[in-house]
């Protein structure tokens, strides 16, 4: 058991030595043996911006810089690799060119490592800085002090002033808040301008191209000074080395240019660099830090060939730790919630229907709606549509899905919900409700047509009501005919009977010849007068009728009763 323990104790030192060797191989350190510094003492020329402006007035007018406001380009950044023969020489160069369509939103100047890296100061590899920031493509940018690591020149990162050079006149590249690209020489007042401040700014050395023309000679005059390891400023321009530059093309797209090389061995000088940029259509461009600092990174991985030797094994080449970095990234979302009207994606804010803008803070323009605000509203008569769904909101006096209808007569106002209040129920203005309104010709025609229609309907209704209220006969016409015929028949029969009776009565009243009369005393008819106590008054007696009797006797105060034939006694 003790032998086993001793065996394990002897293995631990060996294991530790293997781990240390592995760590040493994987953490190779660059040697910083390929410097390319433009100035021997400090950084930048000692003369003022006025001197530079006066020096360049012949070719640049009254300004010592150029500006370009790029149009809003869509799309993503794109990087290409090239291997080219240098005209006029037998050299071949390897490099990268990156095109950024929307510089304001797709490019940032980063401090080394993280925000505050220039204040520490510190130097960090482009890989580390780009990986932490999520850069699609990245390359080294500004110059730095190789001994202290301090950033040199002007540095503005994300709208924050990191370093002010105090007016030192070197070629500058910047992007202002409105998206304007700036190339050239700037005064301190222009650097600190707050009306349209810089969002990104970094200093280079030598203005390579100005308005499509090589501008190196003018830059030599404006930025001239002695250099350190490579000798005079002219040597800095003429020496072959790794190079890095930034510019823009005729369309306003930003162009990043990187050339692999080693000072005095391979790469390009600035004259060749300017000619190459010009051949790619670049209009304005400045030179950035080069030599062993020239580095290009894709998605956090080194894509270039460094020139500094590694430590401790010089057989390998290691990427140098640098200061500032140009980071090409996807459009960020500012604010992160896209103003509450969109979704943040890798390509920026994707706005909800009815909203637009980089941060989805603006509604669709009047007359448009929907996703991307690319659908046209169909509202008429001054109606406005909902920017999300396109529903029309009609002005006063109109209604309908597209506001195509005028309010019906007698109504006015928004949605035609208010009723006119005019004498005699007259119509009013459909928008204001005013009773003193001049109606349109179409409305007058409608009123005329409607009046005729209403009049006909009213007369028809009145006739119908009269007929409904008229007293209906109890008997039908046929019943009246039958009844009339029946009554006429009865009347005829009655008349016939009366005529028959009249005729018979007339026949009985005729007195026939030899008619016998009988005289009967009233006493014989009425009974004994003495018994009844009744006496006939002479004055009241009927006229006496005298008639001879067969006996020859006369009777006074007798009544004559005629004896009629039996057939008359009906």
UniProtKB/TrEMBL annotation:
The chain crosses the membrane at residues 479-500. Residues 548-562 have a biased composition (Polar residues). It holds the Pfam family EGF_Teneurin. Residues 369-404 form the EGF-like domain. CDD domains: EGF_Lam. Residues 531-570 are annotated as: Disordered. One of its GO terms (biological process) is secretion of lysosomal enzymes. It comes from the Eukaryota. Keywords: Disulfide bond, EGF-like domain, Membrane, Signal, Transmembrane, Transmembrane helix. Residues 1-24 form the signal peptide. Disulfide bonds join 394-403. This is EGF-like domain-containing protein. The lineage of its organism: Eukaryota, Metazoa, Chordata, Craniata, Vertebrata.
């Amino acid at each position: 058991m003790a032998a086993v323990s001793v065996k394990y104790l002897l293995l631990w030192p060996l294991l530790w030595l293997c781990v240390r060797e592995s760590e040493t191989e994987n953490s190779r350190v660059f040697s910083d043996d390929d410097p390319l510094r433009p100035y021997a003492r400090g950084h930048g020329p000692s003369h003022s911006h006025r001197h530079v402006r006066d020096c360049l007035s012949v070719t640049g007018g009254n300004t010592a810089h150029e500006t370009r406001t790029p149009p809003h380009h869509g799309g993503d950044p794109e990087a290409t690799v090239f291997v080219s023969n240098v005209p006029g020489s037998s050299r071949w160069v390897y490099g990268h060119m990156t095109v950024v369509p929307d510089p304001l939103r797709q490019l940032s100047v980063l401090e080394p490592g993280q925000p505050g890296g220039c204040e520490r100061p510190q130097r960090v590899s482009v890989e580390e800085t780009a990986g932490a920031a999520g850069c699609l493509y990245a390359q080294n940018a500004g110059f730095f002090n190789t001994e202290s690591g301090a950033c040199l020149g002007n540095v503005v990162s994300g709208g924050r002033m990191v370093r002010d050079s105090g007016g030192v006149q070197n070629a500058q590249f910047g992007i202002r808040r409105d998206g304007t690209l700036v190339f050239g020489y700037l005064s301190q007042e222009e650097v600190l301008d707050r009306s349209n401040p810089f969002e990104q700014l970094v200093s280079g050395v030598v203005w390579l191209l100005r308005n499509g023309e090589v501008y190196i000679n003018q830059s030599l005059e404006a930025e001239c000074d002695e250099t350190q390891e490579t000798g005079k400023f002219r040597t800095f321009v003429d020496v072959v080395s790794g190079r890095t530059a930034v510019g823009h093309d005729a369309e306003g797209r930003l162009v990043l240019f990187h050339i692999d090389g080693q000072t005095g061995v391979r790469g390009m000088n600035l004259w060749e660099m300017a000619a190459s940029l010009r051949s790619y259509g670049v209009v304005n461009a400045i030179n950035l830090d080069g030599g062993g600092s020239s580095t290009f990174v894709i998605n956090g991985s080194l894509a270039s060939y460094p020139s500094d030797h590694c430590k401790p094994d010089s057989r390998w080449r290691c990427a140098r730790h640098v200061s500032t970095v140009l980071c090409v990234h996807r459009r960020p979302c500012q604010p992160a919630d896209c103003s509450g009207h969109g979704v943040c994606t890798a390509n920026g804010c994707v706005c909800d229907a009815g909203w637009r803008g980089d941060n989805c803070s603006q509604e669709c323009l009047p007359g448009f709606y929907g996703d991307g605000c690319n659908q046209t509203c169909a509202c008429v008569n001054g109606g406005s549509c909902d920017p999300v769904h396109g529903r029309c909101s009609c002005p006063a006096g109109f209604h309908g899905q597209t506001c195509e209808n005028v309010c019906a007569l007698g109504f006015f106002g928004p949605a035609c919900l208010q009723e006119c209040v005019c004498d005699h129920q007259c119509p009013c203005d459909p928008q204001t409700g005013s009773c003193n309104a001049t109606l349109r010709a179409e409305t007058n025609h409608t009123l005329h047509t409607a009046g005729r229609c209403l009049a006909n309907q009213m007369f028809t209704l009145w006739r119908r009501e009269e007929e409904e209220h008229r007293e209906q006969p109890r008997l039908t016409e046929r019943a009246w005919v039958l009844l009339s015929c029946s009554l006429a028949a009865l009347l005829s029969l009655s008349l016939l009977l009366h005529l028959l009776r009249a005729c018979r009565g007339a026949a009985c009243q005729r007195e026939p010849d030899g008619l016998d009369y009988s005289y009967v005393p009233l006493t014989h008819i009425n009974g004994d007068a003495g018994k009844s106590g009744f006496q006939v008054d002479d004055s009241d007696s009927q006229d006496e009728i005298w008639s001879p009797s067969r006996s020859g006797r006369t009777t006074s105060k007798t009544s004559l009763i005629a004896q009629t034939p039996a057939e008359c006694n009906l």
